[in-house]
């Protein structure tokens, strides 16, 4: 039996444990938890985890429990704090992304892990998803020759969550480069086989969401709910997606301010340069709906082009100098396009000493450094050099 200690038992880590971890190892048990809301967590726990003991700090939990591994599922602003503490132990760690939300957190985390023997699986499911792995295999086999350019897009059909849920709190999330692009910059570096070293970025805020309506306003309290396209009634009527429950207003002043950069962007883009001098572009759009959803990348070199889209579940290969093109279709549907179950296999294998992490802490840090550079670039309107991980 695997004994897992969980720090911050939120919905995301609960889903990973019950839907993916236990699919790989049904005998896994959550035996110890750190979370301030014990009542809510106990209501969420699976029956087999009802005897879990709650602790106030990690040192006591590790000392008193015979744990085989740790998982951190706190809100984003606490990821690095607890990961730094976990670095003192040799226990395998599953760490939610982003691993940090500002430069101080990131550099402190890098120092903590520079000499640590704590093995980490960072929650980067896109990198290990079957479509991305297939694209990487094609590139490694010479389908494009040397990669020279990458274009990646993320048209998010559920983007309203970043204004109507706690994701809109900049002090917790650090903004949407860190919330979303941390996945995409990671898999872009994986496909290109080298790190991002320089970024120029731009963000558009306040053109779609955000506004001056009163703080903490719910749809049920709003006089505009009959005409507002974001009310539950109109979302249902228009098949527009999003939550059908009463939710916080997407146009409230508590969404943040465009002037100081604490309002999530409606869309943002980045021009990225890789270590070899190759470059790429990335765009994320958060007001897309329905069939406009699209996420994937196209990698180009002199000999060919390889591109894929997770929503379409397809990979396209074009040979530039012979009259052949091919389409590969992936079958089935799974969380994060099949990447979450791959991370579960990695984590269980790490615990049992049978596998190495494909998403170690240095990859989580390198992605954060690229995201922080993009955020700074969008704020200052200039190119920003990306800090590189030193180990």
Count of all domains: 3
Return the string of H and E elements. EHEHEHEHEHEHHEHHHEHEEEEEEHHE
Helix content: 25-40%
Oligomer: single chain
Radius of gyration: 21 Å
Explain what you see:
- There is one protein chain.
- The protein is α/β, with parallel strands linked by helices and 391 residues long.
- The chain folds into 3 domains: 3-124, Rossmann fold; 126-204 and 261-332 and 360-385, Dihydrodipicolinate Reductase, domain 2, CATH 3.30.360.10; 219-255, no CATH class.
- The chain has 13 helices and 15 strands.
- It has helices spanning 11-24, 38-44, 58-64, 79-86, 103-114, 125-128, 130-140, 161-164, 170-173, 176-192, 232-238, 339-351, 361-380, and strands at residues 3-7, 29-34, 53-54, 69-72, 93-95, 120-122, 149-155, 196-204, 267-274, 279-285, 294-300, 304-309, 314-319, 325-329, 384-385.
- The chain has a 9-stranded mixed β-sheet. A 6-stranded parallel β-sheet has the order 3-2-1-4-5-6, sandwiched between helices.
- The protein is globular and about 65 Å long.
- The mean pLDDT is 97.
Topology of helices and strands:
Elements: E1 3-7, H1 11-24, E2 29-34, H2 38-44, E3 53-54, H3 58-64, E4 69-72, H4 79-86, E5 93-95, H5 103-114, E6 120-122, H6 125-128, H7 130-140, E7 149-155, H8 161-164, H9 170-173, H10 176-192, E8 196-204, H11 232-238, E9 267-274, E10 279-285, E11 294-300, E12 304-309, E13 314-319, E14 325-329, H12 339-351, H13 361-380, E15 384-385
Parallel strand pairs: 1-2, 1-4, 2-3, 4-5, 5-6, 7-10
Antiparallel strand pairs: 7-11, 8-9, 8-15, 9-10, 11-12, 12-13, 13-14
């Amino acid at each position: 039996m695997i004994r897992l200690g969980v720090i911050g038992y939120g919905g995301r880590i609960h889903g990973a444990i019950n839907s993916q971890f236990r699919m790989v190892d049904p005998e896994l048990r959550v035996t110890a938890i750190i979370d301030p809301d014990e009542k809510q967590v106990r209501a969420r726990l699976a029956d087999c985890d009802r005897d879990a003991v709650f602790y106030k700090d990690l040192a006591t939990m590790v000392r008193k429990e015979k744990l085989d591994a740790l998982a951190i599922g706190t809100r984003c602003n606490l990821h690095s704090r607890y990961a730094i503490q976990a670095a003192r132990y040799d226990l395998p760690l599953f760490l939610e992304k982003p691993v940090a939300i500002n430069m101080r957190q990131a550099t402190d985390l890098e120092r903590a892990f520079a000499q640590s023997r704590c093995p980490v699986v960072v929650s980067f499911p896109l990198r290990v998803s079957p479509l991305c792995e297939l694209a990487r295999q094609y590139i490694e086999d010479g389908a494009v020759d040397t990669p020279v350019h990458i274009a990646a897009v993320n048209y998010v059909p559920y983007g309203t969550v970043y204004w109507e849920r706690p994701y809109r709190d900049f002090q917790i999330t650090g903004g949407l480069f860190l919330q979303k692009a941390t996945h995409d910059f990671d898999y872009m570096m994986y496909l290109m086989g080298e790190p991002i070293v320089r970024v120029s970025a731009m963000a558009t805020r306040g053109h779609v969401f955000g506004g001056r309506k009163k703080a903490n306003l719910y749809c049920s309290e709003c006089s505009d709910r009959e005409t507002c396209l974001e009310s539950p009634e109109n979302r249902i009527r228009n098949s527009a997606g999003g939550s059908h429950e009463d939710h916080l207003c997407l146009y409230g002043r508590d969404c943040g301010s465009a002037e100081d950069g604490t309002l999530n962007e409606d869309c943002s883009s980045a021009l990225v340069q890789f270590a070899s001098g190759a470059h790429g572009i990335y765009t994320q759009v958060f007001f897309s709906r329905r069939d406009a959803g699209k996420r994937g990348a196209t990698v180009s070199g002199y000999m060919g082009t390889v591109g894929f889209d997770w929503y379409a579940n397809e990979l396209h290969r074009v040979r530039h100098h012979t009259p052949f093109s091919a389409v590969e279709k992936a079958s089935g549907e799974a969380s994060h396009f099949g990447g979450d179950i791959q991370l579960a296999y990695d984590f269980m294998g790490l615990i049992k000493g049978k596998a190495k992490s494909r998403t170690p802490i240095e990859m989580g840090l390198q992605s954060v450094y690229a995201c922080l550079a993009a955020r700074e670039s969008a704020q200052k309107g200039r190119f920003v050099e990306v800090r590189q991980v030193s180990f």
